[in-house]
Specification:
9 helices
Length: 205
């Protein structure tokens, strides 16, 4: 129930969305139950009606947001043959980099959360691996279209791309600078394997 006694639809989603806003605005140190419920506009004790403690909530939050990030880039291979390869990679990276880095920082900065999640599960690593797989699949698809050199090591390129963008995202900088530097990194990584016309063109069938 809300503070006014009105039923709240999908409380878990509402709390997760509020936690994401707090995390992006204040960082891991600002992510506590009071800040989350205040942001969500709910009663202070609502979080504990649905989760055993804050770590249980944050563990569910991390897994939910990691799955969303993976879903967001899973369609990237469908862009093969369309637009500019470097632009496609840059746009996909920028769409997930801040959120992925924030989740990793949260896990690394809160040891009790890492213990709750289980050290062998490594959900933050799973999110990064999902991004790597999506980028590699896209590069493989572009290799099929003839816009990426046949000898390109797409797995290595994808790993380097995700690692570099993550490093850029966790370094304090403006959004404009993040975009500018990401474009430079992507161009440097894939520039040597790009072939043919990089303008808009229909996918090769």
């Amino acid at each position: 129930m809300s503070p006014r006694g009105v039923a709240i639809p999908d409380v878990q989603r509402q709390l997760f969305d509020a936690a994401e806003r707090v995390l992006q605005r204040e960082g891991p140190d600002g992510l506590n139950s009071r800040a989350i419920t205040t942001e969500a506009g709910t009663a202070k004790g609502l979080l504990y009606r649905h989760f055993a403690d804050l770590d249980a909530f944050l563990a569910a939050f991390v897994l939910d947001r990691a799955a969303r990030l993976a879903d967001r880039v899973s369609a990237l291979p469908q862009r093969a043959g369309i637009g500019n390869v470097a632009d496609n990679l840059t746009d996909a990276a920028l769409s997930v980099a801040p959120q992925a880095s924030a989740l990793i920082d949260l896990i690394r900065g809160r040891w009790s959360l890492g213990a709750h999640l289980g050290r062998t599960r490594q959900p933050h690593a799973g999110a990064l691996l999902a991004l790597e797989r999506a980028f590699a699949a896209y590069l493989d698809a572009e290799r099929t279209t003839g816009r990426i050199a046949a000898q390109a090591d797409t797995d290595a390129l994808a790993t380097a791309l995700v690692g570099a963008v993550h490093q850029l995202a966790i370094t304090p900088r403006s959004r404009a600078d993040l975009e500018r530097q990401t474009r430079r990194v992507v161009a440097a990584l894939v520039g040597g394997v790009l072939l043919g016309d990089q303008g808009d063109q229909p996918p090769v069938t």
